[in-house]
Design goal:
single chain, 342 residues, alpha/beta, TIM Barrel, ten-stranded mixed β-sheet, 12 helices, 34% helix, disordered N terminus, binds iron/sulfur cluster
Length: 342
């Protein structure tokens, strides 16, 4: 499987006719990819909240976070509506770097028509080895209104994408859900994938209950010291990620696919194996087996390579070895995990 960065690079190298930096959505013929058997009143899940009016209430509650921002565990308490910025360096205007049909994600998300991916700029986690640091840390991208994000969602659906894959959405959740409502009113009917680094607050995730059908979180570390060392002093990451995972699992449960093998609902976990056991892979697997389920879908990712500032840190300045990968794989098998993307 290609990493996101590898995929973006390969697309860029192919031709500007397909994809143009910094922000462009492919145009294409309208194609309705809804599963004909779906009840349009109940799937995607957001239809219930949209029809009952509760989606408006959720948007109101989420937007109030912008004025004293505690959307993520950094708790910066800045007024982003007034243009102030916290650790993520994002104000309240949605900023995105790209939107396209992605064929480099997990197979159940990609299906035959791709995952409709929207990359948001900025990030509150700021890992020193981030592959997407130009967007997440340097903030490359274009500020767009909620209306244009809604239009992007509709264009991705028109391309036939199986879902709307929101990459690094945490710091923009209020604006994204507002965009989603606009897109639903204009015909959006494919599920939302919440693609996050896992640094989330359960109270915010609760406001996404019934909106998100597919959670795609990373589980990066189990050690506060490692989280602090490699993700900009995020020593509380292991504490918050465990609570967040329990909440996501409570909402959507194990992965459910349709007859074509395309993801419909559920938790899909990513775990990037780091050199020298820095990610705490064994502890992560034991936590998941004990607190969630060995039926969870897990992608044990072995494609780590030193990027961005990783070369400044000797312990992460190399790829993982076969032995390190085998050790994690064996642990997963011993614990009874079978639903893996390897
Ligand atoms: S979303 Fe950004 S401003 Fe808000 S708490 Fe997190 S890092 Fe701070």
């Amino acid at each position: 499987m290609q990493s996101r960065r590898e995929f973006v690079r390969s697309v860029l190298m192919q031709a500007g006719t397909l994809w143009a930096f910094p922000y462009h959505v492919l145009s294409g013929k309208d194609r309705n990819m809804n599963d004909k058997k779906d009840n349009p009143n109940t799937y995607p899940s957001y239809m219930r909240l949209y029809q009952s009016g509760e989606l408006d209430e959720r948007i109101g509650k989420l937007k109030s976070y912008y004025e004293n921002c505690t959307l993520c565990p950094r708790d910066c308490r800045v007024n982003r509506v007034k243009g102030e910025t916290g650790k993520c360096e994002a104000n309240a205007s949605l900023k995105i770097s790209s939107a396209f049909a992605h064929f480099g994600e997990e197979r159940p998300l990609v299906g035959t028509k791709g995952s409709g991916t929207i990359f948001f700029s900025h990030c509150g986690l700021r890992c020193v080895y981030c592959q997407n640091y130009t967007l997440s840390i340097r903030g490359e991208g274009v500020e767009v209104g909620e209306k244009r994000v809604a239009e992007s969602m509709l264009k991705l659906q028109a391309l036939g994408c199986h879902n709307i894959n929101l990459v690094t959405p945490t710091h923009y959740v209020p604006g994204i859900v507002s965009s989603l409502k606009q897109a639903i009113s204009r015909g959006l009917r494919i599920p939302i994938v919440y693609n996050t680094g896992g640094y989330e607050k359960a109270e915010v995730l609760k406001l996404l209950d019934g909106i998100v059908d597919l959670y795609l979180p990373d589980f990066k570390y189990t050690s506060p010291e490692m989280a602090a060392a490699y993700s900009s002093e995020a020593f509380n990451y292991p504490y918050y990620v465990k609570i967040a995972f329990k909440e996501m699992y409570r909402q959507v449960g194990n992965l459910v696919k349709d007859k074509r093998g395309v993801a419909r609902k559920g938790l899909m976990i990513r775990h990037l194996i780091l050199p020298n056991r820095i990610a705490g892979s064994r502890e992560f697997l034991e936590f998941t087996a004990r607190e969630l389920s060995t039926e969870c879908y897990i992608n044990l990712m072995r494609q780590y390579r030193p990027e961005y500032r990783a070369r400044e840190f000797p312990d992460i300045n190399r790829r993982i070895t076969r032995k390190e990968y085998s050790e994690v794989l064996e642990c997963a098998h011993q614990l009874g995990f079978r639903n893996q993307d390897l």
